[in-house]
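Support reply, case 0932

Customer input (verbatim):
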Amino acid sequence: MNKKRNTFFRLLKELFVSFPVMVPLSAACMIFASIVAAMPSLLLQKVTAVIETQMTGGDWNAAWTEIRPYLFGMLALMISGVIATTACEQMRVFFAQGFLCKLRRKVFDKMQSLPLSYFDTRKHGDIMSVFTNDVDTIRELISGLPQLIETGMTVVAVFGIMIWLSGLMTLVVLAGFATMFFISKVIGAGLTRYFTRQQKSVGAAEAYVQEMIDGGKVVKVFGRKNACKEEFARLNAELYQNSYRANAYSNCLFPIVMNIGQALYAAVAVSGGVFMTLGVRNFSLSGLPLGLSIVIPFLSMTKQFTGNLNHLTMQITSIGMAMAGAGRVFDLLDQEPETDDGKVALIRRDGVYLWKHPHGDGTVTFQPLKGKTDLIGVDFAYASKQVLFDVSVHAAAGQKIALVGATGAGKTTVANLLNRFYDIADGKIRLDDINVNKIKKADLRKTIGIVLQDAHLFTGTVMDNIRYGRLDATDEECVAAAKIANADDFITRLPNGYQTALTGNGAALSQGQRQLLTIARAAVADAPVLILDEATSSVDTHTEALIQQGMDKLMKGRTVFVIAHRLSTVRNADTIIVLDHGRIIEQGNHDELIAKKGVYYRLYKGSFELE
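Our regenerated output:
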C-alpha cells in the first residue's frame, strides 16, 4: 500500500514540476467550481424556508420578492461554475497531453542512458509495453484527475454544509458513507492487485508476440507453429484471467455503491420525516430548527453527495490501472544509468584526432590518437559467472589481431569490453596507454568502429543508414565509404539508388547486401580501431569475397580485432589468439601456430571453420 501511495504522490509531483503554473491554476478553478456546485443547496434552504413560512396564508407576492435574489444568485453560481469548469477542462487537455509527451521523452532518454545489461536481461517487447500500455494508463488518470479533485472538493463542501444545517441528519449520511467506504476499500484492493497483474501480463504477451515475429522464419522452418500457438494461448489465457478479475471487481463496485446511495437517499427522507413527526431537536451549527427547510435541501445534498461518491468509485478503476502502469514506468526510470567517470576527451584539430587530458592543476595536455590497444590481466563475469580469466592482448597501432575459438570461448566479450559496454572485474584495458575508464564513453566509442554478425538497418534511405556512422558526413563521403565497402555497385542498381527507402531492417536486401552497408557505415565513421565480429559468417562464398575485399580496404591503417569462426579469414593477422572457455591457450601468427602443432594446428588442418 505504501508503494502505491508513493507512486501516486510521485506522479502528482512529476505533474506539478512539468506544469508549475497551469496545474495550480487548474486546481484553483476546480476548487472554485466545487464550492460553486455546493452553494445552491444553501440558497435552496433559504428559498424553502421562505416558502415554509408563507404556507399558512402568507403574502406570496412578498415571498416572491424575497425569493427572487436567491434564484438569481443560484443562476449566477451555475454560470460561474460552467465558466470555471470549461476553463479547467481546457487546461486539463493541454497539461495532460503535454505531460504524457514529456513522460515518453523522459522514458526514452532514460532508456538511452541504461547499460546493455538491462536490455540483455529483459524482453524487448516488455520494455515496449512500458512506452505504450503503461504510459497510456497514466493518461487515463491524468485526464480524469481534475474531475477527481473537483468531485472530492464538492463532497467536502457538501458535507460541510450538511454539518452546518443538521448534525443529526449528517449522522444518517455518515452511516451510509461508512458502508460505501468499507466496500470500496475491500473491492478496490482486489481491483488494484489484478490490474497490476494485468499490466505485467500485457507486457509478457507483447514480448512473446514480438519475439515470434522476429523469429518467424525459424518458427516455420522447425515446424514450431503449434507449440508457439500453445505458448501464446497460455499467455493470453493468463492475461484474460487477470483482466477478467480486474474488470469484474471494477464492474461490481459501481452498482453496489450506486444502490447504497439510493438506499441512503430513502433513509434520509424517512429519518427526516420521523424526526420532524417526533419533534426531535436539531443539533446543528446554524441553530435552525428541524423542518422542511432542512429536510428538503438535505435530500438534494444527499443526492449530490452520493452522486459524487459514485463518481469517485468509478475513478478507482482508472486509478488502479494508472498505479500499475506508473509503477512499471517508474521502475524503468529508477534503473541505474550507465556510469561514466571519464575525463579524457577526443577532439579534432587540423584534421587530426587528439586525446585531451585535463589535469588536477588546471593544465591540459594533448596526445595523438594512434589506436594502440592493450588488455592486461583482464577478468570478467556476467552476473556471477566468470567468462574471462587473466586475458592479456597487445595490439600495436595498425596491427590486426584475430580472436578465434569455439562458441562461448569469450571472443565477443572481449569486443564488448573494448567498447565498455560492460566494465571488467579486474585488470586494465588501455587505448594509447590511457586507461579506458578515464576516457569519456562517447569519445571512446567514436574511436572504435564495429561490424557485427547481425546486420541491423534502420528505417530510412540507404544514404541515411550509411550516414548513421557519422551524422555530419556529406553525401560524397557516404558514397566514398560505400565504394570502400564494395557496396556502391549494388546500391546504384537499386530503384532509387542511394535514396532507396529501407524498412523492416532492410528486408528487401539480401543478408550480404545488408552486411556491406554496415561495413560502409563503419567506413564513414573512420574510427582508428575496428572490430569485425563474425562479419562474414552468414553469407555465401561470392558475397564473402566481396565483403572480405571491403573489409581489407577498411582495415588499412587501423588497429583491427577480427572475431571469426572461419580460419581462412584470419591467416594474415599479425597475432592470432586462441581462446577456450575464457582463457588464452595459444597466440602467435599463423606460421608460428602451425609450427607449434597445437590446438590451432589441429583446427586448421581438420577444418577451416570452428564448430
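We compared this against your earlier run and they match. Two observations from our side: The two ends are 54 Å apart (CA to CA). The CA atoms of residues 577 and 587 lie 4 Å apart. Please reopen the case if you see a mismatch on your end.
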